[in-house]
Amino acid sequence: MGRFRDALSASGLAAIAEVKRRSPSAGDLRPDADPARLAAQFANAGAAAVSILVDERFGGSFEDLKAARAAAAVPLLAKGFFTEELDLLRAKVAGADAVLILLRDVDDQRAAALISYARELGLETLVEAHDAAELQRAVGLEAEVVGVNARDLSTFEIDRPTQLELIARMRAHDAVVVAESGVHSRAQGAAAELAGADAILVGSALMRAENPAERLREIASRPLVKVCGLTRRDDVDAAVEAGADMLGFILAEESPRGAREVLPVPEDRLSVAVFVGKVEEAGSDLVQLYEREEGRVRGRDAVLLRNGETVAQVVDLPWDEQDPLHFQRAAVVEGRVMLAGRLGPDNVREAVRAVRPWAVDAASKLEAKPGIKDHDKVRAFVEAAR
Asked: Where do the domains of the chain lie, and which CATH numbers do they carry?
Protein backbone atom coordinates (compact mmCIF):
# COMPACT_ATOMS: atom_id res chain seq x y z
CA MET A 1 0.00 0.00 0.00
CA GLY A 2 1.05 3.59 -0.57
CA ARG A 3 1.24 6.53 1.79
CA PHE A 4 -2.26 7.77 0.98
CA ARG A 5 -4.00 4.43 1.44
CA ASP A 6 -1.95 3.65 4.54
CA ALA A 7 -3.01 6.92 6.14
CA LEU A 8 -6.68 6.19 5.50
CA SER A 9 -6.38 2.60 6.72
CA ALA A 10 -5.36 3.43 10.28
CA SER A 11 -7.69 2.37 13.09
CA GLY A 12 -10.78 4.46 13.63
CA LEU A 13 -12.32 6.85 11.15
CA ALA A 14 -9.77 8.87 9.18
CA ALA A 15 -10.47 12.36 7.87
CA ILE A 16 -9.39 14.00 4.62
CA ALA A 17 -9.58 17.77 5.06
CA GLU A 18 -10.24 19.69 1.86
CA VAL A 19 -9.04 23.12 0.81
CA LYS A 20 -11.38 24.82 -1.65
CA ARG A 21 -12.16 28.49 -2.09
CA ARG A 22 -15.50 28.08 -3.76
CA SER A 23 -18.04 25.47 -4.83
CA PRO A 24 -20.29 25.42 -7.92
CA SER A 25 -23.20 24.48 -5.65
CA ALA A 26 -22.54 26.92 -2.80
CA GLY A 27 -20.56 29.76 -4.39
CA ASP A 28 -17.74 31.41 -2.49
CA LEU A 29 -16.71 29.54 0.65
CA ARG A 30 -13.37 31.04 1.62
CA PRO A 31 -12.03 33.15 -1.26
CA ASP A 32 -8.89 34.12 0.66
CA ALA A 33 -7.99 30.57 1.69
CA ASP A 34 -4.23 30.05 2.07
CA PRO A 35 -3.56 26.41 1.07
CA ALA A 36 -0.16 26.29 2.77
CA ARG A 37 -1.44 27.58 6.08
CA LEU A 38 -4.57 25.43 6.01
CA ALA A 39 -2.72 22.26 5.04
CA ALA A 40 -0.32 22.72 7.96
CA GLN A 41 -3.19 23.45 10.36
CA PHE A 42 -5.19 20.46 9.17
CA ALA A 43 -2.17 18.17 9.59
CA ASN A 44 -1.69 19.42 13.15
CA ALA A 45 -5.41 18.88 13.81
CA GLY A 46 -5.13 15.21 12.92
CA ALA A 47 -6.09 15.04 9.24
CA ALA A 48 -4.95 11.77 7.70
CA ALA A 49 -4.60 13.55 4.35
CA VAL A 50 -5.38 16.90 2.76
CA SER A 51 -7.30 17.37 -0.48
CA ILE A 52 -6.41 20.38 -2.64
CA LEU A 53 -8.80 21.57 -5.36
CA VAL A 54 -6.67 22.44 -8.38
CA ASP A 55 -9.52 23.34 -10.74
CA GLU A 56 -10.22 27.02 -11.41
CA ARG A 57 -13.98 26.39 -11.10
CA PHE A 58 -13.28 25.84 -7.41
CA GLY A 59 -10.86 28.77 -7.22
CA GLY A 60 -7.90 26.38 -7.18
CA SER A 61 -4.69 25.77 -9.11
CA PHE A 62 -1.63 23.55 -9.14
CA GLU A 63 0.20 26.42 -7.42
CA ASP A 64 -2.05 25.76 -4.41
CA LEU A 65 -0.88 22.15 -4.42
CA LYS A 66 2.76 23.22 -4.52
CA ALA A 67 2.20 25.59 -1.61
CA ALA A 68 0.51 22.88 0.45
CA ARG A 69 3.32 20.43 -0.33
CA ALA A 70 5.91 22.87 0.96
CA ALA A 71 3.99 23.36 4.20
CA ALA A 72 2.71 19.90 5.19
CA ALA A 73 4.09 16.36 5.26
CA VAL A 74 0.72 14.53 5.21
CA PRO A 75 -0.40 12.82 1.97
CA LEU A 76 -1.94 15.26 -0.50
CA LEU A 77 -4.82 14.45 -2.85
CA ALA A 78 -4.96 16.52 -6.04
CA LYS A 79 -8.63 17.01 -6.82
CA GLY A 80 -9.74 18.07 -10.27
CA PHE A 81 -11.49 16.82 -13.38
CA PHE A 82 -8.60 14.72 -14.68
CA THR A 83 -9.06 12.89 -17.97
CA GLU A 84 -5.57 12.95 -19.53
CA GLU A 85 -2.16 11.64 -18.52
CA LEU A 86 -0.75 15.17 -18.63
CA ASP A 87 -3.13 16.12 -15.79
CA LEU A 88 -1.60 13.43 -13.61
CA LEU A 89 1.95 14.40 -14.49
CA ARG A 90 1.23 18.01 -13.51
CA ALA A 91 -0.20 16.78 -10.20
CA LYS A 92 2.89 14.66 -9.54
CA VAL A 93 5.26 17.53 -10.29
CA ALA A 94 3.26 19.80 -7.98
CA GLY A 95 3.66 17.37 -5.08
CA ALA A 96 0.56 15.15 -5.03
CA ASP A 97 0.56 11.71 -3.46
CA ALA A 98 -2.81 10.79 -4.99
CA VAL A 99 -5.18 12.02 -7.68
CA LEU A 100 -8.94 11.91 -8.16
CA ILE A 101 -10.44 9.83 -10.98
CA LEU A 102 -14.12 10.65 -11.54
CA LEU A 103 -15.87 7.70 -13.15
CA ARG A 104 -18.57 10.10 -14.27
CA ASP A 105 -16.06 11.71 -16.63
CA VAL A 106 -14.21 8.70 -18.08
CA ASP A 107 -15.10 5.28 -19.44
CA ASP A 108 -13.50 2.12 -18.08
CA GLN A 109 -10.76 2.02 -20.71
CA ARG A 110 -9.72 5.61 -19.98
CA ALA A 111 -9.99 5.07 -16.22
CA ALA A 112 -7.79 1.98 -16.40
CA ALA A 113 -5.22 3.88 -18.47
CA LEU A 114 -5.14 6.72 -15.95
CA ILE A 115 -4.82 4.35 -12.99
CA SER A 116 -1.98 2.52 -14.74
CA TYR A 117 -0.15 5.76 -15.59
CA ALA A 118 -0.61 7.01 -12.04
CA ARG A 119 1.15 3.87 -10.77
CA GLU A 120 4.04 4.52 -13.16
CA LEU A 121 4.37 8.00 -11.66
CA GLY A 122 4.19 6.70 -8.11
CA LEU A 123 0.75 8.24 -7.58
CA GLU A 124 -2.23 6.60 -5.91
CA THR A 125 -5.79 7.14 -7.09
CA LEU A 126 -9.08 7.91 -5.41
CA VAL A 127 -11.67 6.46 -7.79
CA GLU A 128 -14.97 8.21 -7.21
CA ALA A 129 -18.45 6.74 -7.74
CA HIS A 130 -21.84 8.43 -7.43
CA ASP A 131 -24.24 5.54 -7.99
CA ALA A 132 -24.46 1.75 -7.99
CA ALA A 133 -23.34 1.40 -11.61
CA GLU A 134 -20.23 3.51 -11.05
CA LEU A 135 -19.48 1.65 -7.84
CA GLN A 136 -19.56 -1.64 -9.73
CA ARG A 137 -17.19 -0.14 -12.27
CA ALA A 138 -14.80 0.87 -9.48
CA VAL A 139 -14.85 -2.71 -8.19
CA GLY A 140 -14.20 -4.03 -11.69
CA LEU A 141 -11.24 -1.67 -12.02
CA GLU A 142 -9.87 -3.10 -8.77
CA ALA A 143 -9.58 0.39 -7.33
CA GLU A 144 -7.67 0.36 -4.04
CA VAL A 145 -9.29 3.55 -2.71
CA VAL A 146 -12.93 4.19 -3.63
CA GLY A 147 -14.78 7.42 -2.92
CA VAL A 148 -18.57 7.30 -2.62
CA ASN A 149 -19.94 10.78 -3.21
CA ALA A 150 -23.29 11.71 -1.71
CA ARG A 151 -23.64 14.69 -4.04
CA ASP A 152 -25.23 14.41 -7.48
CA LEU A 153 -22.87 16.53 -9.57
CA SER A 154 -25.68 17.36 -12.00
CA THR A 155 -28.21 18.64 -9.44
CA PHE A 156 -25.79 19.19 -6.51
CA GLU A 157 -28.32 17.53 -4.20
CA ILE A 158 -27.13 15.35 -1.32
CA ASP A 159 -28.53 11.80 -1.08
CA ARG A 160 -27.05 10.44 2.13
CA PRO A 161 -29.19 7.27 2.45
CA THR A 162 -28.08 6.06 -0.98
CA GLN A 163 -24.47 6.91 -0.17
CA LEU A 164 -24.60 4.84 3.03
CA GLU A 165 -26.21 1.92 1.18
CA LEU A 166 -23.42 1.99 -1.42
CA ILE A 167 -20.74 2.19 1.26
CA ALA A 168 -22.23 -0.85 2.99
CA ARG A 169 -21.98 -2.82 -0.27
CA MET A 170 -18.22 -2.29 -0.29
CA ARG A 171 -17.73 -4.41 2.83
CA ALA A 172 -17.39 -7.43 0.58
CA HIS A 173 -14.45 -5.87 -1.27
CA ASP A 174 -10.86 -5.19 -0.28
CA ALA A 175 -10.77 -1.46 -0.81
CA VAL A 176 -10.43 1.59 1.38
CA VAL A 177 -13.73 3.48 1.24
CA VAL A 178 -14.08 7.25 1.58
CA ALA A 179 -17.44 8.93 2.22
CA GLU A 180 -17.47 12.24 0.36
CA SER A 181 -19.66 15.35 0.51
CA GLY A 182 -22.14 16.69 3.00
CA VAL A 183 -20.41 15.72 6.26
CA HIS A 184 -21.03 18.53 8.72
CA SER A 185 -21.20 16.73 12.07
CA ARG A 186 -19.70 13.95 14.17
CA ALA A 187 -22.92 11.96 13.77
CA GLN A 188 -22.83 12.15 9.98
CA GLY A 189 -19.24 10.95 10.02
CA ALA A 190 -20.21 8.17 12.41
CA ALA A 191 -23.07 7.13 10.13
CA ALA A 192 -20.57 6.65 7.30
CA GLU A 193 -18.18 4.84 9.64
CA LEU A 194 -20.84 2.41 10.81
CA ALA A 195 -21.87 1.73 7.20
CA GLY A 196 -18.29 0.69 6.49
CA ALA A 197 -16.36 3.82 5.47
CA ASP A 198 -12.71 3.99 6.44
CA ALA A 199 -12.53 7.75 5.99
CA ILE A 200 -14.59 10.87 5.40
CA LEU A 201 -13.72 13.80 3.17
CA VAL A 202 -14.77 17.12 4.67
CA GLY A 203 -14.59 20.36 2.70
CA SER A 204 -17.38 22.93 2.83
CA ALA A 205 -17.97 22.53 6.58
CA LEU A 206 -14.33 23.41 7.21
CA MET A 207 -14.12 26.24 4.71
CA ARG A 208 -17.18 27.94 6.23
CA ALA A 209 -15.89 27.65 9.79
CA GLU A 210 -14.32 30.52 11.66
CA ASN A 211 -11.52 28.16 12.68
CA PRO A 212 -11.25 25.34 10.10
CA ALA A 213 -8.74 23.26 12.08
CA GLU A 214 -10.86 23.36 15.24
CA ARG A 215 -13.91 22.40 13.18
CA LEU A 216 -12.00 19.39 11.84
CA ARG A 217 -11.07 18.33 15.37
CA GLU A 218 -14.71 18.64 16.40
CA ILE A 219 -16.08 16.53 13.53
CA ALA A 220 -13.43 13.82 13.98
CA SER A 221 -13.48 13.75 17.78
CA ARG A 222 -14.57 10.84 19.94
CA PRO A 223 -16.38 9.79 22.04
CA LEU A 224 -19.75 10.37 20.51
CA VAL A 225 -22.33 11.41 23.08
CA LYS A 226 -25.72 9.74 23.39
CA VAL A 227 -28.53 11.09 25.54
CA CYS A 228 -31.02 8.29 26.14
CA GLY A 229 -34.42 7.84 27.73
CA LEU A 230 -35.93 10.74 25.82
CA THR A 231 -39.72 10.95 25.88
CA ARG A 232 -40.54 14.60 25.08
CA ARG A 233 -39.90 16.96 22.19
CA ASP A 234 -38.51 19.62 24.57
CA ASP A 235 -35.92 17.18 25.87
CA VAL A 236 -34.87 16.15 22.37
CA ASP A 237 -34.40 19.81 21.47
CA ALA A 238 -32.37 20.41 24.63
CA ALA A 239 -30.10 17.44 23.91
CA VAL A 240 -29.56 18.64 20.33
CA GLU A 241 -28.81 22.17 21.50
CA ALA A 242 -26.34 20.80 24.05
CA GLY A 243 -24.47 19.00 21.25
CA ALA A 244 -25.50 15.37 21.70
CA ASP A 245 -24.69 13.24 18.67
CA MET A 246 -27.19 10.44 19.29
CA LEU A 247 -30.71 10.63 20.73
CA GLY A 248 -32.05 7.48 22.36
CA PHE A 249 -35.68 6.36 22.74
CA ILE A 250 -36.44 3.36 24.96
CA LEU A 251 -39.27 1.34 23.42
CA ALA A 252 -39.81 -1.01 26.34
CA GLU A 253 -43.00 -0.72 28.38
CA GLU A 254 -41.28 -1.94 31.56
CA SER A 255 -38.80 0.93 31.56
CA PRO A 256 -39.59 3.96 33.77
CA ARG A 257 -38.38 6.13 30.90
CA GLY A 258 -40.11 4.31 28.08
CA ALA A 259 -41.14 6.31 25.01
CA ARG A 260 -44.16 5.75 22.77
CA GLU A 261 -42.12 6.29 19.61
CA VAL A 262 -38.88 7.53 18.12
CA LEU A 263 -39.25 11.28 17.77
CA PRO A 264 -37.78 13.12 14.76
CA VAL A 265 -34.18 14.27 15.11
CA PRO A 266 -32.18 16.70 12.93
CA GLU A 267 -30.45 15.21 9.89
CA ASP A 268 -27.04 15.90 11.41
CA ARG A 269 -27.77 13.61 14.42
CA LEU A 270 -28.56 9.92 14.83
CA SER A 271 -31.66 8.41 16.40
CA VAL A 272 -31.38 5.18 18.39
CA ALA A 273 -34.33 2.92 19.26
CA VAL A 274 -33.68 0.85 22.39
CA PHE A 275 -35.34 -2.57 22.61
CA VAL A 276 -35.26 -5.47 25.05
CA GLY A 277 -35.41 -9.00 23.70
CA LYS A 278 -36.81 -8.31 20.26
CA VAL A 279 -36.35 -5.63 17.63
CA GLU A 280 -39.33 -3.99 15.97
CA GLU A 281 -39.48 -1.46 13.14
CA ALA A 282 -39.19 2.02 14.63
CA GLY A 283 -37.78 4.18 11.85
CA SER A 284 -34.54 4.91 13.75
CA ASP A 285 -31.03 5.18 12.34
CA LEU A 286 -29.68 2.62 14.79
CA VAL A 287 -31.00 0.05 17.25
CA GLN A 288 -29.69 -0.77 20.72
CA LEU A 289 -30.74 -4.27 21.74
CA TYR A 290 -30.59 -5.74 25.25
CA GLU A 291 -31.31 -9.35 26.16
CA ARG A 292 -34.24 -10.13 28.42
CA GLU A 293 -33.42 -11.15 31.97
CA GLU A 294 -35.94 -12.65 34.37
CA GLY A 295 -37.06 -10.25 37.08
CA ARG A 296 -35.33 -7.23 35.52
CA VAL A 297 -36.24 -4.62 32.93
CA ARG A 298 -33.27 -5.70 30.81
CA GLY A 299 -30.09 -7.71 30.75
CA ARG A 300 -26.73 -6.15 31.41
CA ASP A 301 -25.05 -5.49 28.06
CA ALA A 302 -26.37 -4.70 24.60
CA VAL A 303 -25.32 -4.45 20.99
CA LEU A 304 -25.67 -1.48 18.68
CA LEU A 305 -27.16 -2.51 15.34
CA ARG A 306 -27.24 -0.92 11.91
CA ASN A 307 -29.63 -2.65 9.52
CA GLY A 308 -29.47 -5.75 11.71
CA GLU A 309 -25.66 -5.91 11.82
CA THR A 310 -23.72 -5.39 15.04
CA VAL A 311 -21.55 -2.27 14.76
CA ALA A 312 -20.63 -1.69 18.42
CA GLN A 313 -20.77 -3.32 21.83
CA VAL A 314 -22.72 -1.56 24.58
CA VAL A 315 -21.06 -2.18 27.94
CA ASP A 316 -23.57 -1.38 30.68
CA LEU A 317 -24.26 -2.07 34.34
CA PRO A 318 -26.74 -4.65 35.59
CA TRP A 319 -30.21 -3.18 36.10
CA ASP A 320 -30.29 -1.27 39.43
CA GLU A 321 -26.86 -2.60 40.43
CA GLN A 322 -23.30 -1.32 40.56
CA ASP A 323 -20.01 -2.98 39.55
CA PRO A 324 -16.74 -1.56 40.92
CA LEU A 325 -14.86 -3.05 37.95
CA HIS A 326 -17.21 -1.60 35.33
CA PHE A 327 -14.66 0.69 33.66
CA GLN A 328 -11.90 -1.93 33.75
CA ARG A 329 -14.25 -4.46 32.18
CA ALA A 330 -15.20 -2.03 29.41
CA ALA A 331 -11.59 -1.07 28.71
CA VAL A 332 -10.64 -4.58 27.56
CA VAL A 333 -13.53 -5.04 25.13
CA GLU A 334 -12.26 -5.07 21.54
CA GLY A 335 -13.76 -2.94 18.79
CA ARG A 336 -16.17 -0.05 19.16
CA VAL A 337 -17.48 0.36 22.69
CA MET A 338 -20.43 2.43 23.78
CA LEU A 339 -20.05 2.86 27.52
CA ALA A 340 -23.25 3.12 29.54
CA GLY A 341 -24.30 2.64 33.15
CA ARG A 342 -25.01 5.51 35.54
CA LEU A 343 -22.91 8.01 33.63
CA GLY A 344 -23.44 11.68 34.34
CA PRO A 345 -21.66 15.02 34.49
CA ASP A 346 -19.86 13.94 37.67
CA ASN A 347 -18.13 10.82 36.34
CA VAL A 348 -18.07 10.85 32.54
CA ARG A 349 -14.62 12.48 32.32
CA GLU A 350 -13.18 9.73 34.49
CA ALA A 351 -14.98 7.14 32.37
CA VAL A 352 -13.60 8.52 29.12
CA ARG A 353 -10.04 8.57 30.50
CA ALA A 354 -10.32 5.02 31.80
CA VAL A 355 -12.07 3.36 28.85
CA ARG A 356 -11.44 5.53 25.77
CA PRO A 357 -14.85 4.52 24.41
CA TRP A 358 -16.21 5.17 20.95
CA ALA A 359 -19.36 6.61 22.56
CA VAL A 360 -20.84 7.33 25.98
CA ASP A 361 -24.51 6.87 26.86
CA ALA A 362 -26.45 8.46 29.73
CA ALA A 363 -30.09 8.44 30.81
CA SER A 364 -31.08 8.25 34.48
CA LYS A 365 -28.46 10.66 35.85
CA LEU A 366 -29.64 13.39 33.47
CA GLU A 367 -33.22 13.41 34.77
CA ALA A 368 -35.39 15.63 36.93
CA LYS A 369 -37.60 12.56 37.29
CA PRO A 370 -37.94 9.33 35.28
CA GLY A 371 -38.55 10.17 31.62
CA ILE A 372 -38.11 13.93 32.15
CA LYS A 373 -34.69 15.42 31.47
CA ASP A 374 -32.96 18.13 33.51
CA HIS A 375 -31.63 20.36 30.75
CA ASP A 376 -28.78 21.74 32.87
CA LYS A 377 -27.57 18.19 33.56
CA VAL A 378 -27.82 17.33 29.85
CA ARG A 379 -25.67 20.34 28.94
CA ALA A 380 -23.16 19.56 31.67
CA PHE A 381 -22.90 15.91 30.60
CA VAL A 382 -22.23 16.72 26.95
CA GLU A 383 -19.64 19.33 27.87
CA ALA A 384 -17.86 16.99 30.30
CA ALA A 385 -17.84 14.11 27.80
CA ARG A 386 -16.00 16.20 25.23
From this structure: 3-220 (3.20.20.70), 224-385 (3.20.20.70)
